[in-house]
Amino acid sequence: MATLIRQCRPRGEGICDVLVSDGRITGKGADLAADGGVAVIDGSGCVLLPGLVDAHTHLDKTLIGTPWHPHSAGERLIDLITNERRVLTELDLDPALQSRRMVHHMLERGTTAIRSHVDIGTDIGLRHFHGVAATREACTDLVAIQIVAFPQTGMMIMPGVADLMEQAVKEGAEVVGGLDPVGIDRDPKGQLDAIFAIAGKHGCEIDIHLHDLGEMGAITIDMIAKRTAALGLEGKVTISHAFCLGDIDDARLDGLITLLRDNDIAIATCGAGHYPIPPIRKLRAAGIRMFAGSDGVRDAWGPLNNGDMLERAYQLAWHGDTRDDPGIETMLDLATHGGAQAMGLADYGLDVGCRADLVLVEAETPAEAVCYHPPRRMVMAGGRVVAENGKSLLPAP
Amino acid sequence: MATLIRQCRPRGEGICDVLVSDGRITGKGADLAADGGVAVIDGSGCVLLPGLVDAHTHLDKTLIGTPWHPHSAGERLIDLITNERRVLTELDLDPALQSRRMVHHMLERGTTAIRSHVDIGTDIGLRHFHGVAATREACTDLVAIQIVAFPQTGMMIMPGVADLMEQAVKEGAEVVGGLDPVGIDRDPKGQLDAIFAIAGKHGCEIDIHLHDLGEMGAITIDMIAKRTAALGLEGKVTISHAFCLGDIDDARLDGLITLLRDNDIAIATCGAGHYPIPPIRKLRAAGIRMFAGSDGVRDAWGPLNNGDMLERAYQLAWHGDTRDDPGIETMLDLATHGGAQAMGLADYGLDVGCRADLVLVEAETPAEAVCYHPPRRMVMAGGRVVAENGKSLLPAP
Asked: Domain B2-50+350-392 belongs to what architecture?
């Protein structure tokens, strides 16, 4: 089955046709022939983007598809964690169904690749992991999903969690996670040694949540960098959020940037209007790999994340007062190529031969696409049209 | 001509029908009769909101309708002001056409009332004012527009500007503006005396841009409050942006809040992810009137403001990490009733008798409407359906 997208503008550049066959981009050029049997989509001069990448989210815990849940937690991180466990226990949702619903929600908005942190705990065991793994399997033709084994309720303070995380990796979690080794576990040596031991033993990647601000966060980055070098894990480690990079003085920041670059450690950001976030343009200029995510969407942490990565790129621009086109395009890069690189998607992009994960956006330039983030005109996942005019064409899970 | 909106949920509450006749809400209830000739709109359980109110914008300077303009200015306020004059001179746009285009853009997103600051300067004279006044006249059936005579390039540093502003008020500007009396004019006494003299003489309201941070902003508020009391202008003065309220210590803030309340001075905010903004919930809890606006949309100040007030309410929630429903609804209130009150729209709201400025949003609750801000299902302005499914039904200006 082939599809010809007529008169679109890849990344906002000159108008051309894009031919898709067997799930891949097989041709680009002016006035490509549409043989019999080729479906034709009118690109109408829209900007064509590669599929959006949401490389930091929590598919397992969303409340999507259930009645509106007014936010009920206190403000501290520990309040949010405790409240979430209470809510999820009360609602008794199925992580497979919830993650599937969220995948459809994200596809509708143009996201075709997802790195999801998934809760592992002594209370829930591997239940969430198995649910998201089922969704990963069920949706494999539509969306690439990477799973991070994530100790949401703590790791060293919850004996048994590290073993469960290792078990998840054995069963197919591509990434081992972590959570505020100082702030939550109060045992940075213990948590980081355990995480890196799992990665060293199983060859998986690492992606550690780090909300801790100031020097508490900074020493954690020091420790992560040291272990990355010791184990030769350069290029395989991500620090998510890393609020401390937006919250320390320039001299300390410059030192950390050197460490991140020398050890090729990536930084994931979700924006977060109310927190200091890493200075994106400074980090990127220094050669640090960065990518973006929605964080948890419509879950017990709150309703403010809505799972639209084009809007998330906008929020990153808004957060840093980034008004120029190259800067806005950098934010879009975090939500496209940056995430794809982190996820190791080798056949990602708009070149001939790439997987046909494509998004048509009614806009004149990529910057305009980000600023207005209108409903996606068309979303194609692996060559299949899955949404039109902002509405999913897939059967509801 | 009458229209019946079936099965909608005013402000997210119980399902009912809403009858509109002769531009006003004339009935609300279950299963209202649709007599012959009554047009019926299927509300489908959508949330019904009153028309959104954008009570701080700059209709005269938008570049909308022209090719995408990559942002080109430096970062300082004065760079932005100077750059804008250069861009506007080069493009030579018609303020009447541009403001008309922006009104249509805003209507499409559900905005039915607008307070627009309009540039007055010795270089441009009253050209922008006359343009927006023409739009105000042409669109009077669709949208309420209030004009603020605004000295964008300075007031005391540009002799003649105060006289032009007074002339604009004589010709129908409802509000006299101002701009950073310390930071731009470096003559707070001069600028504020001139503004209050115009207001005292002509009985107009006052709305002063105040970007100055910290104590520079705080002393300006002191001075505005003193003059408000002296002239008995309580309830007629607004301070726009007032970043300093997000940038001073609690004791000074509490003193300013008392001043604002005692003199019934309103605060307008546009969010601005990268600046300290007034602490909305604290000010509202103290009884301060507040309202919201888009600020300049797609203009030479940058492309980040997109003219969607439902999304702007979301950005206000995002900025302050406001996750609970009452808090999110407060942000929506700033974009609806707060602005309507400031603009003196007596017949605003969802009660029988109110002007039929109505917005249908596919959502379960007002908080969900804010968090997802989907394309508006239907926008009605003065009883006329002007947009459906996010697309304007009006002829392009």
From this structure: Roll (2.30)
Largest CA distance in chain A: 65
| Alpha-carbon span A182 to B295, nearest angstrom | 42
Tokens of B323: 């996750």
Distance between CA B296 and CA B304 in Å, rounded?
Answer: 9
Q: Tell me the pairing of strands B384-388 and B378-381.
A: antiparallel
Question: Could you give the ipTM of this predicted complex?
Answer: 0.96
- Cα distances (Å, whole numbers) of residue A378 to A10, A37, A350, A353: 14, 20, 15, 20
Average pLDDT, chain B: 96
Burial environment of residue B214 by CB neighbours within 10 A (0 to 12, 13 to 18, 19 or more)? middle
In this predicted model, what pLDDT tens digit does every residue of B241-283 receive, in sequence order? 999 999 999 999 999 999 999 999 999 999 877 788 999 999 9
Give the model confidence (pLDDT) of B204-220 as tens digits: 999 999 999 999 999 99
pLDDT > 90? residue B73? no
Smallest CA–CA distance from B277 into chain A, residue: A274
Topology of the domain comprising B52-342: TIM Barrel (3.20.20)
Window A:123-152, CB contacts with B under 8 Å: none
Task: Give domain limits for chain B.
Answer: 2-50+350-392, 52-342
> What tokens appear for B134 in the block?
């023409």
pLDDT for res B145:
98
At A45, list the tokens: 């001069």
Tell me how far apart the alpha carbons of residues A87 and B188 are, in angstroms, rounded to a whole number. Answer: 54
Closest CA–CA distance from residue B235 to any residue of chain A (Å)? 31
Contact assignment for A323 to B303 by CB distance below 8 Å = yes
pLDDT in tens, A52-93: 999 999 999 999 999 999 998 887 888 888 888 888 888 999
Distance from CA of A302 to the nearest CA of B (A): 5
Quick: pLDDT tens for A209-266.
Answer: 999 999 999 999 999 999 999 999 999 999 999 999 999 999 999 999 999 999 999 9
Residue B372 touches chain A, beta carbons under 8 Å: yes
Question: What b-and-e string marks burial along A358-386, b requiring 16 or more CB atoms within 10 Å of the CB?
Answer: bbbbbbebbbbbbbbbbbbbbbbbbbbbb
Structure tokens at B228: 């408000």
Q: Is B47 in the A-facing interface, judged by CB distances under 8 Å?
A: no
Instruction: Give the Cα separation of B168 and A394 in Å (integer).
Output: 56
Question: Per CATH, the architecture of A2-50+349-389 is what?
Answer: Roll (2.30)
Q: Which of B68, B273, B303 sits opposite A273 (nearest CB)?
A: B273
The tens digit of pLDDT for each residue in A84-124 reads: 888 888 899 999 999 999 999 999 999 999 999 999 999 99
Structure tokens, A200: 């060293």
